[in-house]
Amino acid sequence: MTSLREMAEIAARYDTAMSWAMLRALSEEGVAVCAPRRRAHAYDHLAWCFRNHGSPMDAPWLL
Question: pTM, whole model, 2 decimals?
Answer without folding.
Answer: 0.54
